[in-house]
Amino acid sequence: MSKRKMFLRMITASLLRRRSRMLIALLSIAIGATILSGLVTIYYDVPRQMGAQFRSYGANMILLAKEGESLTTDTLQDALSVIPEDQLVGATPYRYVRLDMTSRQQSFTTAGTDFAEVQKTSPYFSVEGEYPQAAEEILLGKEIADTIGAKVGSYIQLTWRPVVTVHENASDDWVPNAKLSGSAEGFNAGIVVVEATLDDEGKIATLEIDASSQTPEIGGQVETDRNFISRFIGQSLPVSLGEDVDAVSGATISSQAVVDALNNARSTAKGSAAAERSGYFNVTGILVTGGEEESYIYMNLKDLEGLTNDNLLDVAELSVSANAEQLEEYAKAIDGSDAGITARLVKRVTRSETAVLGKLQALVFLVTVVVLLLTMICVSTTMMAVVSERRREIGLRKALGAPDSSIRAEFLGEGMFLGGLGGLLGGLLGFVFAQVVSVNVFGSSITFQPLLLPITLLVSMLIAAVSCLLPIKRAVAIDPALVLKGE
Amino acid sequence: MSLLELKGVSKIYGDLKALDNVNIHVDKGEWVAIMGPSGSGKSTMMNIIGCMDKPSTGEVLLDGVDISKESSKALTDIRRDKIGLVFQQFHMVNYLTAVENVMVSQYYHSMPDEEEALEALGRVGLRERAKHLPSQLSGGEQQRVCVARALINHPELILADEPTGNLDEANENIVLDLFRQLHDEGTTLIVVTHDPEVAEAAQRTIVLEHGRVAREVINENFGK
């Protein structure tokens, strides 16, 4: 039989045949290891868990189009590919448009969005009724609902009117119901600006003139001369001075400028053949947030796109389960990609998240250290008792010729064997412990970290070994002569 | 040829002279008993001969080596290699079986060899009890295991401290018979006792009183 075999035989015999004492040491190591591995598991899982908790406070990243670029559903998908799927809690697109409420002749900001994602990135939204599920269903901000007296189940007609911008070299097409604006050069190179609306037949319904650049008592009269202005109402474009309308006397140049501006404005509708579109929408829920969201109407992005006939987005709100550094990284990656999108972090959320996590982890670390110390004290005390209990045996071994190194090795061996066994037990129990804590505190289960088991094993053995140092010192100091004295 | 020689050995604890200028010698193969009342210095002498203590003054020659100046580590080596110990209280490792207890001695000396250990147990008539724990053995059986343990490494000297002090007469005789066999094989035996019957089994008895050798008695009946 080899020496090592005998060594193991002695150690296992000592542990197995002297069970009660060793069970206490084993138990204390196992409990220590349980708490250790449990807390470490939680320590590493807390960021994930807390991240999920923090995600309930809303988005922590905002995506916008870079200047000169546009944000669309497609470019948004490109940008999102930067973030790992398992970390992306939700990504909500928003398109903001003013829609007219036909019955009230009032317009409201309407957000086109994806309601499934809204519930992920803005879990604090509280809806009386239900989130829209089908097409042509909308969510009404509480403020609007109160203003217009709408309830869940009401139908509302919403109308989109294209906004026309002026630019030069436009064609002669005109658009019914369009709002027009235009400008032309008047007296002494001063610019005259007009704004007009057309009726269903394309005739001028209203006209406003800004002639502040003209000489007030002369050309400026075109701004205020009701007689002059009223001649334009009901006219079709283009209009000509002298035929359709007469110039304000003494202000021919300024009058001509108004006509030119109108004719210019008319031409702006070119290309955007868009006409106003409207639809009836069913209110499925009233949104209550206590914030500005209450003054918005929310509808499906698809419905809004049906009205505006484009696929532009204004902003996307992202909820990402990651720490501050990772978020910075993702934001940089998105900025650096060629999607034409820039990412901004919602610092308020990420900062408080980092701070709270830091404190929690520090607490877990502290508790772990205290538990380790307690375990060491407990094991050390037990081993101390074991040494004094076995004084005679140690004396005998020394009398039989055991060198100090052998005594050390035997006790260290026993201690580390206990440490290993306790560590194994504790590693497994620790997972159960972490699981129970996680389910009760965070309401979600955790994943088993296989690497933690050997680490717990090693740490437990190390702790047991350190705990044995003082008892071993005592054991080595025992005088072999005590066995002769017939004590 | 002497195996052990004490020359002017004294051991002083403060004011107390536990041993006072002791001179003895023990030949190789000799069987010597050491007697004396309590406090006569038997234990101190035993510790010094057993390499577990050092004299205050004087020389102790064991197999020609002066062990009085050696370090405690060297003394451990000498004790392991040359001396087999038998104690009054038996002293077995209580969680190891009889054969394992014998093997512990082998383990520290050289290599554990279960066969050899079983043979040694067979010699003391306990081969059948090899797998028993000390708590399952009688006092006499335990002491026989200790004798087996003492002789397993073939020591030059067997040092026995009141080996029969806790035994009944039947077991005492068994142990003394074992000593006789060892003596016949040429092993040197030093037996500390205050039992005159045990002392009479030896060839020579050294009587200690007040830390000095009071007298030496040759046992004329030895071997008869």
Structure overview:
The complex is a heterodimer of chains A (487) and B (224). By secondary structure, chain A is of the alpha+beta class. In chain A, 48% of the residues lie in helices and 20% in strands. Chain A has 14 helices and 15 strands. In chain A, the strands form three sheets. Chain A has a six-stranded mixed β-barrel, surrounded by four helices. In chain A, a hairpin with a 5-residue loop joins β8 and β9 (191-198). The model of chain A is unreliable at 165-172 and 267-273 (pLDDT under 50). Chain B is an alpha/beta fold. Chain B has one domain: P-loop containing nucleotide triphosphate hydrolases (Rossmann fold), CATH 3.40.50.300. Chain B is 33% helix and 29% strand. In chain B, the strands form two sheets. Chain B has a six-stranded mixed sheet with strand order 6-7-8-3-9-10, with helices on both faces. In chain B, β1 (2-13) and β2 (16-27) form a beta hairpin. In chain B, α3 packs across α4 (114-123) and α3 (98-109) packs parallel to α5 (139-151). The mean pLDDT of chain B is 90. The chains are: A alpha+beta (487), B alpha/beta (224).
Quick rundown:
The complex is a heterodimer of chains A (487) and B (224). Chain A is α+β, with helices and mostly antiparallel strands and 487 residues long. Chain A is built from 14 helices and 15 strands.
Describe the secondary structure blueprint for this structure.
The complex is a heterodimer of chains A (487) and B (224).
Chain A: H1 3-17, H2 19-55, E1 61-65, E2 71-72, H3 73-80, E3 88-101, E4 106-113, H4 115-121, E5 126-129, E6 137-141, H5 142-148, E7 155-160, E8 179-185, E9 191-198, E10 204-210, H6 221-224, H7 226-230, H8 252-266, E11 277-288, E12 297-300, H9 301-308, E13 312-313, E14 315-320, H10 324-336, E15 341-345, H11 347-389, H12 391-399, H13 404-442, H14 452-476
Parallel strand pairs in A: 4-12, 6-11
Antiparallel strand pairs in A: 1-14, 1-15, 2-13, 3-4, 3-7, 3-14, 5-11, 6-12, 7-11, 8-9, 9-10
Helix pairs in contact in A: 1-13, 2-11, 2-13, 2-14, 11-14, 13-14
Chain B: E1 2-13, E2 16-27, E3 31-35, H1 42-49, E4 57-62, E5 65-66, H2 72-82, E6 83-86, H3 98-109, H4 114-123, H5 139-151, E7 157-161, H6 169-184, E8 188-192, H7 196-200, E9 204-209, E10 212-218
Parallel strand pairs in B: 3-8, 3-9, 6-7, 7-8
Antiparallel strand pairs in B: 1-2, 1-4, 4-5, 9-10
Helix pairs in contact in B: 3-4, 3-5, 4-5, 5-6
